Amino acid sequence: MKVKNFLKSRLPKELQNRLRENRRFVRNLARSVKAFFKPSRINEDWSRWYKKDFLGPERCFGELKTSIPSHVKNVIDFGCAAGRNLSAFNGEYNLYGVDIVDKANIEWRMQFQSLTYIQSPLQDLAIEEPLDDFLCISHGCIMYLNKNQQREFMQYLVDKGCRNFIFQEYDRRTLHLNAYSEKGPKVGYPFENFLNLRKQWFREDLPTWIRLEGRP
Ligand SMILES: C[S@@+](CC[C@H](N)C(=O)[O-])C[C@H]1O[C@@H](n2cnc3c(N)ncnc32)[C@H](O)[C@@H]1O
After folding, report:
1. Residue to mutate, 96, 106, 136, 141, ligand 1, most ligand atoms under 8 Å from C-beta
2. CATH architecture for the domain at 47-211
3. pTM for the complete prediction?
4. Could you tell me the distance, in angstroms and rounded to a whole number, from the CA of residue 103 to the centre of ligand 1?
5. Considering only 49-63, 105-119, 181-195, which range has the smallest mean pLDDT?
6. Could you tell me if 182 and 175 are in contact, meaning their C-beta atoms sit under 8 angstroms apart?
7. What is the mean pLDDT of the chain?
């Protein structure tokens, strides 16, 4: 019997309603319990990404900067690591970085003028303010969410008002390049283009997914 049906048949109506009202909290709690008993398939060591000079910023962010609509005031990087991609926007936008690692373990790429770090898995991200004047970016991070998690995450961004995105992530055709694979030793998932973002190539092996829209 599915957990949902089990709860439906056993729990009093009022408690069911309360759980429904707090769906996001309940979902995250269930996920944490599940993760505790069933370790993740992702087994990559990300520590090199938290080092200051591991790699320079990705080309796509620098080149697309001139196309960012004028109402965008903030840039948020999902899986920011040491902030190498945020460095392309330093001094021009308020910067936000999200990652799972403790801030104390990050060697920031540079002294950022305005950077807010949020330690959180993308699956549990909870930001209070609307994100309609944010540009959302990522490089090689959304690929660690499975298809359902990606769908929920994209829906979360849209619900928060996000309209501008630059994601550089493998898709089904390119995931196996650089040894990422759904089955291999490093595990990643293909980027599912749920928001129907435009695809462009700034690197041969890795597509960039873009939407940059002005005010309606
Ligand atoms: C391949 S590294 C890329 C780092 C960075 N985007 C860059 O290009 O330098 C993947 C990053 O995603 C972060 N990450 C992995 N799974 C995550 C999750 N579920 N939520 C938030 N960050 C995650 C890792 O800690 C790591 O910093």
Report:
1. 141
2. 3-Layer(aba) Sandwich (3.40)
3. 0.83
4. 13
5. 181-195
6. yes
7. 90
